[in-house]
Design a protein that fits this description.
single chain, 117 residues, mainly alpha
Amino acid sequence: MLGRTYDTQNCSAARALELVGERWSLLIIRDALFAGHARFGDFLAPVIVALSAWGDRYAAPNGPPIIYEHTACGSEIRQQIRCVACEEEICNTDIGVRPGPGLLSPVPSDDAAAGHR
């Protein structure tokens, strides 16, 4: 069983996962993507970059231990959320929700079903 903390990990993603749970699965993806431990080129790197950015902000008191960079030019990268229609960068307070096509209808409880007999 994995521990609840990663004191030996110098990684904001690991620190963030201490707070949000299911740490081991994303740490495997992190290592596969950025530490060269396996061939997982099809994994979603943006998830790890975004999680690391959150960890840098809230769980890295001495600053980011790792800087993700654009390999072509060496500049630091950052994860952004943009509107698909107008391409404006979105902040958290501008995000709303609506039902999507995969939302399942609520299943009636046994009590509700019994009332319709």
